[in-house]
Each structure stands twice: as structure tokens, then as C-alpha cells.
Prior knowledge:
- By secondary structure, the chain is mainly alpha-helical.
- It contains six helices and no strands.
- Helix 1 (3-22) crosses helix 3 (38-46).
Amino acid sequence: MDEQTASTMAAVGPRIKGLRTQRTLSLTSLAEATGISLSTLSRLESGQRRPTLELLLPLAPELRVDIGEVIGALRARTARPAETPESP
Length: 88
């Protein structure tokens, strides 16, 4: 895994926690709404568990954001250096 991907992945948990607290949701209420266990959500937010698509898909609608915002896709995309086409 390259450095940028690792950095993006590491930021997902804190981003989820920030979105959850902005919406004044408790871990318990988010766990109940998504069907994800309380311990899994806690570990995800603290960075002890890696995010998977199976975890992120139910979280995004409950946090009222696009999945791209949960993973920081816009930030990651704009941070990448521009690709240059290969010359013939």
C-alpha cells in the first residue's frame, strides 16, 4: 500500500467520528441504525480496525454524506500529482 493510500485509510476512522459527533449521534444509536456492532464502530473510529466497503456502505447514509466524503476521496484526488500522458 502506498503512503497516500495508507494516509487516506488512516483518516477514515477519525472522519467517521467527526461526522457522527457533528450529527450528535452516539455510537450506540449509529450501531443500531447500521447493524454494525458497537465494538466494531469503536475500533473503526479509533483506527484499530481498517474500513471495508461492507462497513462504509451502511454508514454513509446514516451520517448523511456520500461515501466519497467518508473516505475523503475528494481530498485524496486533489492531493495527487497530475498524471502526464506517455510520449509516443
